[in-house]
Amino acid sequence: MPGRRLVAADLGVDLGARATLVQFSSAFCAPCRATRRVLGEVARMVPGVAHVEIDAEARLELVRALGVLKTPTVLVLDAGGRVVRRGVGQPRKADVIAALGEAV
After folding, report:
1. Contact yes or no for 47/98 (Cβ under 8 A)
2. Using the 8-state DSSP alphabet, how is residue 16 labeled?
3. Which of 22, 28, 48, 76 has its CA 20 to 30 A from that of 70?
4. Which residues contact 70 (CB under 8 A, 6 or more apart)?
């Protein structure tokens, strides 16, 4: 999966100028809410970073194409939309910031 590119049309929104945090969530996923909070905080802290949350149940074609098996799953994209990191489960803020280091 690392190296795959996603574009704005895949996500339904523009990519961040420097990086994009893509979160796959589902409606009854408690860790997804905490992940939304962490990724949102990081995106607000780091200029040029966008956070995009995707409803996994509503975007099954994308979920299958990317091999998303659990929520939350987080993809870190560089400015060109290339997947540079992938994680499953609720991330720690420090780990998200470290992963962004690979993307920017």
Report:
1. no
2. P
3. 48
4. 88, 89
Q: Which amino acid would we find at residue 94?
A: A
pTM (two decimals): 0.95
Residue-wise pLDDT for 38-62, tens only, equals 999 999 999 999 999 999 999 999 9
Which single residue is written with the structure tokens 């690979």?
102
CB atoms within 10 A of CB 5: 11
Question: Across the chain, which distance is largest between two alpha carbons, in Å?
Answer: 32
Q: Residues near 84 by Cβ (< 8 Å), separated by ≥ 6?
A: 2, 76, 77, 78, 99, 102, 103
CB 72 within 8 A of CB 24: yes
Smallest CA-to-CA distance from 22 within 55, 66, 52 is with 52
CA neighbor of 78 nearest in space, from 20, 24, 23: 20
